[in-house]
Write a structure and sequence with these properties.
The complex is a heterodimer of chains A (169) and B (181). Helix content of chain A is 20%, strand content 25%. With 169 residues, chain A is α/β, with parallel strands linked by helices. The longest helix of chain A is centred in the first third of the chain and has 12 residues. Chain B is α/β, with parallel strands linked by helices and 181 residues long. In chain B, strand 4, helix 3 and strand 5 form a beta-alpha-beta unit. Chain B is globular. Classes of the chains: A alpha/beta (169), B alpha/beta (181).
């Protein structure tokens, strides 16, 4: 079914509202993707939800990506949002550094972000400031690292029955 | 109840003689109560083993014990994540002696294909295992073969084994407290 909103129109609205805080935009596979500064993620998502002409009020997913070679912007935070009434999807990206991976929580806008942010913290170590209970959710509590960061091997280091040469470690 | 084999008895008029350990072993062997700890596809094969086609009941094992207190045999079938490992160990500790452990499938035995940070690389890292059944998943025939091996161990287990120093050393290795005499 066709969307009631056009990518260009939404992008113009966003640029008019946030100006320089929208850093760039692209449309891979027709999905409007905008990069915003990490400080303004909360404001943009809040505005997208409350703006009556957009009504982008559903958080489909949020997660992180680790780009170890991208100095100063190693961790990418990705937010997928959906307008149920307009049948419109948008993707937000914000980059933070690995030394200080902090970004504001959006649990006050979307309650469903609670567990997603805990999962992102669990696997990537992103600190969501203002989150009500930022603890590990899937991994064991005693785990002392963030396993989806690229510097850690996927394999269990204690396994003995495999020849390391064939498994990249 | 299955046929009691290799039980040497001397029959006389009004009495029957045997040795206590052989009678106890035969009784234990023919009434092993399994506790299924099934987490994934091996658990489905185990359910088929339990069902009427393969029929564990003919070995005196029709009573699945879903409480560890009354179970003799812990059957671990499936992938055990590291987060689940302390719970598996707790279940094992709650079982009363004598107890046996059957590890069903590649994942329970070695981690299988899940060579990853979140999966326990074999349950023998947290509890002692008596018999390993290979396969991914093993067919019910293989699981029954493993259970037959367990039966053999049960039948030939000396009565005092669970109090022996060797057994206590095995438990100590896993940081589990043994029986007090």
């Amino acid at each position: 079914m066709k969307s009631k909103l056009e990518n260009n129109a939404v992008l113009e609205l966003l640029k008019a509202k946030f100006g320089e805080r929208i850093k760039s935009s692209e449309e891979p596979f027709g999905l409007l993707t905008i990069e915003v500064t990490s400080e303004s993620v909360h404001d943009v998502i809040s505005w997208l939800k409350t703006e009556p002409s957009l009504a982008i009020s559903f958080l489909t997913n949020l997660g992180a990506v680790h780009y170890p070679n991208d100095k100063g912007r190693e961790i990418a935070m990705v937010y997928h949002l959906h307008s149920l009434t307009n049948n419109f999807r948008i993707r937000l990206k914000a980059y933070v550094s690995i030394e200080n991976p902090e970004i504001g929580t959006i649990t006050d806008i979307h309650a469903g972000a609670n567990w997603m942010e805990r999962e992102t913290y669990d696997f990537y170590g992103v600190i969501f400031t203002g989150h009500p209970n930022l603890t590990r959710i899937l991994n064991e509590d005693s785990m002392d690292y963030f396993p989806m960061r690229k510097e850690y091997h996927l394999e269990d280091a204690t396994r003995e029955d495999k020849d390391d040469r064939f498994f990249g470690r | 109840m299955g046929k009691i084999e290799n039980l040497q008895v001397i029959n006389g008029e009004g009495y029957q003689l045997s040795t206590l350990d052989k009678v106890v072993a035969a009784a234990r062997k023919n009434s092993v109560w399994p506790l299924p700890f099934a987490t994934s596809c091996c658990g489905i094969e185990y359910m088929a083993t339990m069902g009427s086609n393969y029929d564990l009941a003919r070995f005196g094992m029709e009573r699945m014990s879903f409480s560890p207190r009354q179970a003799d045999l812990l059957i671990v079938a499936g992938t055990i994540s590291k987060k689940l490992a302390p719970i598996l160990k707790q279940v094992y500790e709650q079982m009363a002696e004598p107890k046996w452990v059957l590890s069903v499938g590649a994942c329970a035995s070695s981690g299988g294909i899940f060579d990853t940070y979140s999966v326990l690389q074999g349950i023998d890292r947290v509890i002692p295992v008596d018999v390993y059944v290979p396969g991914c998943p093993p067919r019910p025939e293989q699981i029954i073969d493993g259970i037959m091996k367990i039966h053999e161990m049960v039948q030939h287990e000396p009565l005092r084994r669970r109090y022996s120093d060797e057994y206590k050393a095995i438990l100590n290795k896993y940081d589990i407290e043994g029986n007090e005499e």
